[in-house]
Write a structure and sequence with these properties.
Among the domains are: about 100 residues, no CATH class; about 170 residues, Orthogonal Bundle (Helix Hairpins). It contains twelve helices and four strands. The longest helix has about 80 residues. The chain is rod-shaped.
Length: about 500
């Protein structure tokens, strides 16, 4: 049989031939497994379930401070609760491992206790999102039922207290962080406000509409300057006209007083100059008539100059040397003084308008740079103000969330099932040990039967012959002994005898 492949029929033959051995070893294994379970120390499991309770106030009203997922929080709390700092006081206060506490290091005892504690997340059964956590369970495995319950209750309480402490601490840390950020944001906002105030002080009246306003102001100033210039021109023309009228009237009055008309002097001078030109064309300069004519011209020029000087004195000093002037002269001189005063005032106003125009033009030229600086300062101030208001809002929300945590109205861990007192040991499972022993015995029996079958060199079937001899089988001879025994058995049952037998 070792030289050919086994079939299902071969296995059935093996079972029929060795079933007694297999069953016997199975029974022996069952008894042995059950007996071993009776000698193993009992272990008890105490379990508690903790449910995550949603906040009493909706998150739309008060946003929670903690944003981490419960899975992450559970991992963090598990590391904290199962650390040596937390488990060592529990070992000492509860008197765990009394026989080993003085001869084994505390690290070893903490490691043993950590292996005895199992924390498992509770997830929804009919929900496709397996990342969602409804709560978690705490299981403690111990050799004493009461101790298992006490340790499970203590660890469960530690988880709940750690959750409360962690949420309150995170809320306080968030409040402190936001308060510090709010202080920094307030300082930055004040700095931006100070820069903006200094800019507005250096550029008085500047606003986003300043360019258009400056153009309008400049246009108005140009209009005022044009009107002022026209007023000065009109006043100058009026003054010149009045001055000319006064000069003519003064000359007319002097001519009437002296009997000589300035216009006669001018005509006489022109005639003498014409006569001199005619003489010089015919004679030399030493000719008596030429010399005489030159003397007459010089004398006439002196008279004309004296007449003009007198006119000027009369113009400046009124009637000249305190003489009384006619009312017409006084009115004309008053008009001239009024025109001079108007010209002076308008000239000053013109200078003032020109200065304003230069300032306005400088503003218009500097408007792009000033506008860019103003936009940068305004944008910086607005961003600082928005950031400050956002932080202020977050600080207020964090304060409300912290108050909710302090009142334990936020997300809390609720004890759904307290630690139970196990009535039966969870280990060893004697039924499981018995069936395990039975399975091991059956497997051992089957293996032993298979080994014995392999060591058997008997040829029992046609396939055994063909596999061993490598020759085809032509005929099979039945077992004669088997037929004789069968005939004898039949005869005995029927009470007859067979002569051939």
């Amino acid at each position: 049989m070792t030289q050919r492949e086994w079939t299902a029929r071969d296995y059935m033959t093996l079972l029929r031939r060795w079933w007694v051995l297999i069953i016997a070893l199975g029974v022996v294994g069952l008894l042995l497994g059950y007996g071993i379970s009776r000698f193993l120390p009992n272990r008890y499991e105490s379990q508690s379930k903790i449910l995550v309770q949603q906040p009493t106030v909706s998150s739309n009203v008060v946003a929670p401070v903690l944003s981490e997922d419960l899975n992450e929080r559970l991992v963090t709390m598990k590391q904290q609760v199962l650390s040596r700092a937390s488990l060592e006081p529990l070992i000492r206060q509860s008197g765990l491992y009394p026989e080993d506490i003085n001869r084994v290091s505390m690290d070893s005892l903490v490691a043993r206790l950590q292996k005895s504690i199992d924390v498992t997340a509770i997830r929804p059964i009919d929900d496709n999102d397996q990342s969602k956590v409804l709560g978690f369970s705490v299981t403690v495995d111990w050799d004493n039922a009461r101790t298992a319950q006490d340790v499970c209750a203590a660890v469960t309480s530690m988880f709940i207290q750690e959750n409360i402490r962690r949420r309150e601490q995170n809320s306080q840390d968030t409040n402190q962080f936001l308060a510090q950020q709010l202080t920094d944001a307030k300082a930055k906002l004040d700095e931006q406000g100070s820069k903006l105030a200094d800019f507005e002080a250096r550029h008085i009246g500047f606003s986003p509409d300043a360019p258009q306003q400056n153009f309008e102001i400049l246009t108005g100033l140009y209009s005022q300057l044009d009107a002022t210039t026209q007023a000065i021109t009109r006043a100058q023309l009026d003054k010149n006209l009045t001055q000319s009228t006064l000069t003519q009237q003064i000359a007319t009055r002097q001519a009437s007083q002296t009997g000589k008309n300035p216009e006669t002097f001018e005509e006489e001078l022109a005639a003498l100059q014409t006569q001199l030109a005619s003489l010089q064309a015919r004679y030399t300069d030493s000719y008596p008539d030429v010399v005489k004519t030159k003397l007459q011209i010089e004398a006439l020029k002196k008279k004309i100059a004296e007449s003009q000087a007198q006119d000027k004195d009369l113009d400046v000093d009124g009637a000249g040397k305190g003489a009384m002037e006619p009312l017409q002269f006084i009115q004309l001189r008053a008009q001239i003084r009024a025109d001079n005063q108007l010209i002076t005032e308008k000239t000053k106003e013109q200078e003032r308008i020109q200065e304003q125009i230069r300032v306005a033009e400088a503003r218009v030229q500097a408007t792009p740079q000033v506008e860019e600086q103003y936009e940068q300062l305004t944008r910086g101030h607005q961003m600082a103000l928005e950031f400050y208001n956002d932080l202020l809002k977050k600080r207020d929300q964090s304060a409300m969330a912290t108050d909710l945590e302090r009142r334990q109205q936020g997300e809390q861990l609720t004890l759904l099932e307290p630690a139970d007192l196990p009535s039966e040991p969870s280990y060893p499972n004697r039924v499981l040990f018995a069936f395990g022993g039975f399975g091991a015995g059956v497997g051992l029996g089957f293996g032993l039967a298979f080994l014995l079958e392999l060591r058997d060199t008997s040829l029992r079937t046609e396939r055994d012959v063909e596999s061993t001899l490598r020759l085809p089988v032509l005929a099979m001879v039945p077992s004669i002994q088997g037929l004789v025994e069968k005939s004898v058995t039949v005869n005995r049952l029927t009470g007859t005898s067979d002569a051939r037998a």
